[in-house]
Structures are given as C-alpha cells and as structure tokens.
Write a structure and sequence with these properties.
alpha+beta; Immunoglobulin-like; 6-stranded mixed sheet; 11 strands; about 290 residues; about 20% strand
C-alpha cells in the first residue's frame, strides 16, 4: 500500500508506513519479513509455507558458516606467517646488504708514550696529640616541682562574635499510607484497533477512604508537544473512553500512549477548592499503541 493508494479491502486512503489499515484492520503483507528459500535462494514472505519460486517447502537458508570459517582461517594463517617468518626475512636482508657493501678497514694510529719525571714527596712527621683531662660530672639536686591546678577555661563572648543558637531538629518525612501500586495490564506495547475495548487494570491496594481514589494518568506526544489525560476511580480498572486516545498521539511515535497510577487523597483547602495529595508511591509505567 503506497502513497496515493487505497486499502484493497475498504478503499480508505492509507500511508506506506502503516502495517495495518486503521479503518478495517487489513494487514499490509509487503511489510512482512522476508527470508531466503533453502532450495532456490530467492526471497519470499516469511508467512508462506511453500516457496512461490521453486515450489519447495519454504525454510530459511542457513548462514554460510563454512565460508566465514575459511576466511577466518586464511586471516589467522597470514598473521602467524608474518609473526614467525618476519624476523628471519629481516635478518637475511641485513646479511645481503653487508655482502654487497662490505665495511672498509681503517688504520688505527699507534700512541707513543713519553716518560715524564715526577718528584717524590718527603714524608713529614705527624705531631702526637697531648691527652686533655676529662672533667668529672657533679650531680646537682634540682627542686621538686609542685603540682598546680589548671584553671578551667571560661567561654567569654567577644564583641562582634555571633551568638550561639540551638541546632534545629529535623522532622522525618512521613511514610506513605499505601505501597507502590502494581499494574496488571494490558501487556507493555500492546497494539489496539478501532474495534477493541481498552481496559487498564491494576492490583487491589486495600480499602480506600471516601475521599481516596486510584489516580490514573496518561501522557502522549500530540502535535510535537506532551499531552495529558486520565481520571480518578474507586475500582481496580478503567475502561478508557475513545475520545481519550483515538487519533490523538502523533503518527511518528507509532501513536504510543504511556500510563501509570497512584493513590490520591482529595481534600478542601482554605479557599474552598478541592486539591489532591498523593498518599502512595507512583507505579511503574506501561505503554500501548493505537492504529
């Protein structure tokens, strides 16, 4: 189904990137995966059981592992050959160069030594040291120290110093009343058509007070910007109205929608307006597609 063509079933206009007609659900077989026939090696649709070219039972042709293995063996052999015989080839090249260009002998001049007369020094007698008497150390008693009481330091506030203040006590954040909700389905990434009913489900988190609800939240890309939807319910499921998701998400996203839940408490503020406050953690997110 290419650009400018219609669905062969319902004749509605379709685009080449659509695998399923959004009007009647007809599947575009041109986008199906193709494989090579094991017998004739020609390509055919993976949904067929008989090759349309040769008539044999359609089975995928296995990868040419022996060709890949042969290429690996050749490369490894070249590497080993260069590693083993490379030094020997280099040595042979040096020997050939020495035979072609032998080194030329050069005469080394002979050094002639000339005797030089040197004077013999006369020994001078070393003077003998005279022993100096060593003084005897005399013990002089010292006064016994008297223990004195160390004065206790007093904190004196100096002018210009800041006045000490008490450290504030940190109040711990209260634990949420409910645990993290668990989503049941639909399974992540499931595709829905026009004729299917979309129901979001989750686990029962316990008894809710009259002003407590399951807050169901959705988001998607619409006209290149992030859009939001959802509702508050008492049940553990929500039948999503068609106007909340039909044709809203951008086509380049695959018309993908993300959803999650948490438990919310509704209260009235000082201005008389109702405000919501989460009393549980936020669940994990799941996605679904619409075509």
């Amino acid at each position: 189904m290419s650009e400018g063509q219609s669905c062969p079933v319902c004749q509605e206009p379709v685009k080449p990137g659509w695998r399923i007609c959004p009007n009647c659900g007809h599947e575009n077989t041109k986008l199906l995966t193709q494989i090579r026939c094991r017998v004739c090696s020609l390509r055919a649709s993976a949904k067929l059981t008989v090759c349309p070219h040769c008539g044999a039972k359609l089975e995928p042709k296995p990868a040419p592992y022996w060709q890949i293995s042969l290429g690996i063996i050749v490369v490894v052999g070249l590497i080993l050959g260069i590693t083993r015989f490379g030094p020997a080839l280099a040595t042979s090249t040096q020997q050939v160069a020495m035979i072609v260009n032998p080194p030329t002998e050069t005469l080394t001049p002979t050094l002639t030594s000339t005797a030089t007369a040197t004077s013999t020094p006369t020994e001078t007698p070393t003077p003998t040291d005279t022993a100096t008497p060593t003084p005897t150390a005399t013990y002089t008693p010292s006064a016994t120290p008297t223990e004195t009481q160390t004065p206790t330091p007093t904190n004196t506030l100096q002018p210009g110093e800041p006045t000490p203040t008490d450290t504030p006590t940190i109040t711990p954040t209260p634990t949420p009343r409910f645990k993290k909700p668990l989503l049941r389905g639909p399974e992540n990434g499931k595709l829905f058509g026009r004729e299917e009913e979309l129901i979001l489900r989750w686990e029962d988190m316990g008894e809710l007070a009259p002003n407590e609800y399951y807050a169901v939240r959705m988001n998607w890309q619409q006209d290149g910007e992030l859009a939001y939807g959802g509702t508050n319910v008492k049940d553990t499921f929500w039948v999503v109205p068609q106007d909340q998701y039909w044709g809203l998400a951008d086509e380049f996203t695959g018309r993908e929608y993300e959803w999650y839940i948490y438990i919310e408490e509704i209260a009235t503020n000082e201005d008389g307006k109702q405000v919501g406050r989460p009393i549980s953690e936020v669940s994990d997110s799941l996605t679904f597609l619409w075509q």
